[in-house]
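My main concern about presentation is that the manuscript never shows what a single data entry looks like. An entry of this sort, consisting of the sequence and the corresponding backbone structure tokens, reads as follows:
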Amino acid sequence: MTFDASGQSALDYLHCRYGKSRLLFRGPRRRLEGRYVAFFGGNETYGKFVELPFPALVEDLTGKRCVNFGCLNAGADLYV
């Protein structure tokens, strides 16, 4: 018996790390040189189950380079 699924595939969050941090952030990885807009936050910023989280949408609308530092279940203590 075989099973062929032609439905949706799983989202690729393109996890990445910056510097020596052990934290995984939502990608794609961006250059941190020069000017950019940084987004910090938890699940909403990370965009779990969402193909394009709001930092990516802001980047598309404004043309400014945006970096998503969102982490799952993150609170203020994560960034301190």
